[in-house]
Amino acid sequence: MSTLEIKDLHVSIDTEQGNVPILRGVTLTINTGETHAIMGPNGSGKSTLASTIAGHPRYKVDSGSITLDGEDVLSMSVDERARAGLFLAMQYPVEVPGVTMTNFLRTAKTALDGEAPSLRHWTKDVKTAMAQLRIDADFAQRNVNEGFSGGEKKRVEILQLELFRPKFAILDETDSGLDVDALKVVSEGVNREHSKGAMGTLLITHYTRILRYIKPDFVHVFVAGRIAEEGGPELADRLEEEGYDRFTAQSAVEA
Amino acid sequence: MADTTQISPDTTSEGERTELGRYADKARIGAPSGTADTRAVIDGFTEEGESLPGGDDGVEQLGFKKHSHGNAPVVPEASRGERRRSFDLADFPALTGLEEDWRFTPLKRLRGLHTDALTGAAPAVAVGGAGNVTVETVGRGDARLGSAATPEDRVSAAAWNAFSEATVITIPRETVADGEVMVTVTGSAREAAAQHILIHAEAFSTAVVVLDHSGSATLAQNIEIVVGDGAQLTVVSVQEWDDDAVHVSSQQAKVGRDARYKHVVVSLGGDLVRLTPSSIFTATGAEVEMYGLYFADAGQHLEQRLLVDHAVPNCKSRVTYKGALQGDDAHTVWVGDVLIRKAAEGTDTYETNRNLILTDGARSDSVPNLEIETGLIEGAGHASATGRFDDEHLFYLMARGIPEKAARRLVVRGFLTEVIQQIKVPALEERLSASVERELAAGNL
Questions:
Q1: Is B411 an interface residue toward A (CB < 8 Å)?
Q2: Using one digit for the tens of pLDDT, what is the confidence trace for B4-39?
Q3: Residues of chain B with pLDDT under 70
Q4: Is A140 helix (H, G, I), strand (E, B) or coil?
Q5: What is the mean pLDDT of chain A?
Q6: Alpha-carbon distance B145 to B139, whole Å?
Q7: Of A157, A196, B67, B287, which residue is least crowded by CB atoms under 10 Å?
Q8: What angle do CA A48, A53, A56 make, to 5 degrees?
Q9: Residue B75, pLDDT score
Q10: Helix/strand/coil (H/E/C) assignment for every residue in A94-106
Q11: In chain A, which residues have their Cβ closer than 8 Å to the Cβ of B355?
């Protein structure tokens, strides 16, 4: 059982117009076995939270803390965070020139585990996971994400999730840009890994659609860099009917 | 040039292939011309040819810097096939740096190769490896010299006129060399020098010849290569010079009927290395593969200008060059000229250049040129792409647990391995892989 704890997190970015605060005090605790959905309108800071947990250099933590089983995540480098068990499925996975998927997956697995995976089992695991996610076998010989469609890139993110088996998976709008078939395939992958009982999931999404396939235990509504409302899965249903207007209007008044 | 069609001349094009019969009798890709409809879309080109801005004042799109050429006006040749070829130095005027084929080269750093008499001591040549090839040192009067190659530029002509002895390596007819022919070229002097080496693979012979350059030198070199009918020859030219070396080398091959010729360039060391490898088809049915790998560090200038001359029907050529750059003022140049002459029906050619920029401050120029004088070909295409390894790539790999240095090495190694694997000499492949690793370590990557 692990716990990822975010306390009063304030994050800003430096722009040409100066420093812009994005997260204004986020507090959130996720335990192994739980699925938390973070929902919110564009610009509310959802993706910033995801990238900050993973350690993207663009985001500057002004105050607050992130801990994983009591260990200070913010003092870790990006790769250390991954090795500690955090996995970010990226919203826009980049193409990496010169590195085949096969080489990349094996290198990452070796770095994460501290030892090279047994070749026989590993090859089989990769093949099985690729087949389950309906990724063509020839993708293994292609360069990481190079020439992949949006949907293919997202599937490859979930492939990594299944192969790397993190303690906590942060899915940054993994559902964006997917058609319904791809959405199902991707959701199945997440559920497969989640059902093993060793992972906590933070699901960041703009739409309620993916919540039909991945059932959240908790729903947090993000508005203007804060959690504006929290609840169970019923909150997602309410958002589906009412949209974000109620929250955005409120935040406009506050501002 | 009204009959000339211009198709996407520049360096960001991916996987273009010309379609048969689509173009007029003489279609040129990559050479300046001026049909009204293309003028509008090709940045930097006018009716007069390329318009070369004095500074980097081009349009930036999507964060990519506008492609830029050198800073001087250039009068292009009408056709690559019309470039002057001569043994007489006087046929080549003194260089100004404005010449089409010298515009990327920093002449000041040639240490006099283009101006001085090349009277220094040539780097020592030692030939080992295969026991069943003939190695001779001959005087400049030997009739075989100059049979395969004619100088195409001033430095090459100067070298031709200055060398005193040449090394001639002959793989006898129908002989399979019983090992790699290792030609070590070791420089130990700074004075501008000339060198001449002739490699003759006679009919139906098979060999791998490695030219292994190291040490310190200021060298103008002509490598003449004859690939006889049905011969299979691989020539690998490795430049692992000391940091101060200057090396200008013409490596011309005359390729016979049904021959297979593979040429591999690996340029890692030296202050300035400028290679001009060419493959000239002289009879039908031959195939040529030309590979290159270059890795430029801060301040290094690594240039390669290729020519594949399809002068006869039914020959095939493939060109793949890959470069990595790191550090301030690391500069690489790749110019790939492919000429399909009127007679070269049934030609099948493709050339590609890829560059990977690892740090700020480096510059890579890439110019594929395809000149087609007949529509009756199998295929002709070119591709060039220059990308950079940036913080987002790094973040992606690190977010998967891979430490920063390992992430950078992973990318570069993967990128360059494709070329190293083409050498097919395991010991040399290993050595060069290790050299690439050292380059990475030196760049603190």
A1: yes
A2: 333 333 443 333 333 333 333 333 444 333 333 333
A3: 1-77, 443-445
A4: helix
A5: 93
A6: 9
A7: A196
A8: 65
A9: 57
A10: CCCCCCEHHHHHH
A11: none
pLDDT digits (tens, 9 = 90+) for A12-39: 999 988 999 999 999 999 999 999 999 9
Look up residue B404 and give its DSSP letter.
H
Place of tokens 């040449």: B166
Is pLDDT at A246 greater than 90 in this prediction?
no
For tokens 């140049």, what's the residue?
Answer: B333
- Residues from chain B that touch A81, judged by Cβ atoms under 8 A, are 399
In chain A, which residues have their Cβ closer than 8 Å to the Cβ of B404? 77, 79
**The amino acid at A31:** N
Taking an 8 Å cut-off on Cβ atoms, the answer to whether B402 and A111 are in contact is: yes
Find, in chain A, the residue whose alpha carbon is nearest to that of B394.
A96
Among residues B364, B261, B370, which one has the least CA distance to residue B316?
B261
Q: Note whether B155 and B113 are within 8 A (CB).
A: yes
pLDDT recorded at residue B145: 97
Tallying the residues shown for chain B, one arrives at: 445
On whether ipTM exceeds 0.90, the answer is: yes
- pLDDT(A83) > 80: yes
- With beta carbons under 8 A apart, name residues in chain B contacting A94: 392-393, 396
Radius of gyration of chain A (CA): 18
Query: Smallest Cα–Cα separation from A68: which of A58, A83, A57?
Result: A83
Which residues have CB under 8 Å from B147's CB, separation 6+? B224, B226
For every residue of B33-50, which 3-state class applies, written as one string?
CCCHHHHCCCCCEECCEE
Any A CB within 8 A of B395 CB = yes
Q: Does A77 touch chain B (CB under 8 A)?
A: yes
Which residue type, as a one-letter code, is found at position A101? M
Q: DSSP string of B181-215?
A: EEEEEEEEEEEEEEEEEEEEE-TT-EEEEEEEEEE
Burial letters B382-398, b for 16+ CB under 10 A, else e: bbbbbbbbeebbbbbbb
Cβ within 8 Å of B, A 119-148: 143-144
CA distance A176 to chain B (A): 19
* Secondary structure (3-state) at B110: helix
Residues 6+ apart with CB under 8 A from B333: B104, B105, B301, B302, B303, B304, B305, B364, B365, B366
Instruction: Report yes or no: B139 at the A interface, CB cutoff 8 Å.
Output: no
Q: Is A79 close to B415, i.e. CB distance below 8 A?
A: no
Of A2-6, A116-120, B20-24, B209-213, give the lowest mean pLDDT range: B20-24
Query: Residues near B65 by Cβ (< 8 Å), separated by ≥ 6?
Result: B56, B58
Of A81, A98, A164, the CB nearest to B415: A98
List, in order, residues 6 or more apart from B4 with CB less than 8 Å away. Answer: B24, B26, B27, B28, B31, B33, B35
How much is the pLDDT for B332?
98
Nearest to B415 among A54, A82, A97 (CB): A97
Distance from the B348 Cα atom to the nearest Cα atom in chain A, whole angstroms: 25
Q: What span, in angstroms and rounded, lies between the C-alpha atoms of B261 and B231? A: 8
- For residue B27, what are its two tokens? 């279609």
Span A85-114, mean pLDDT?
A: 93
pLDDT for the residue numbered A250: 65
Residue range A160-171: mean pLDDT, rounded: 98
Does A37 reach chain B within 8 Å, measured CB to CB?
A: no
Tokens of B215: 């040490």
* Minimum CA–CA partner of A50 in chain B: B399
CB of A93 less than 8 A from some CB of B = yes
Interface test with chain B among A77, A102, A104, by most B beta carbons within 10 Å:
A104
Residue B30: the pLDDT is 42
Could you tell me where the DSSP H helices lie in B49-166?
Answer: 154-162
